[in-house]
Amino acid sequence: MLPASRKRFSNPTPFPFMLLTLLLTTLPGMHAKLYEQRAMENAYYDVLERPGALIFVRDQGAAWDVFTIGFYRDIKHFAESADIPLEEEDRAAKAAGFESVSAISPYLRSLILQHHDTLAGAIR
User: Fold this and answer.
1) Are strands 66-72 and 112-121 parallel, antiparallel or unpaired?
2) What parts of the chain have a pLDDT lower than 50?
3) What's the whole-model pTM score?
4) The CATH number of the domain where 30 resides is what?
């Protein structure tokens, strides 16, 4: 089991309420760069003490190349990043290897052909 998975699933608290999933299909030749971008984004979240995502890479058969799953307690937890000061986000982005916080999304989009994302709540 990967360290991020081990950390996430060793937590004794109940399964989180929300999942954010991203299915990403890369542009030709961008697979390794996309994986690196997803890891950089996790490093960015680590600096901000926000939940990162598990990163899965297609081995064969699927139409997507990279699949990520993020975990949140609820919709408020998901949206808390809006309260982080821009200067702090920018420092975290630079520490993770991005030009700036405003460069994270454009860089991701420069590597992908398409993406599908989903927010899912717990079934009780």
Assistant:
1) unpaired
2) 1, 12
3) 0.83
4) 3.30.70.100
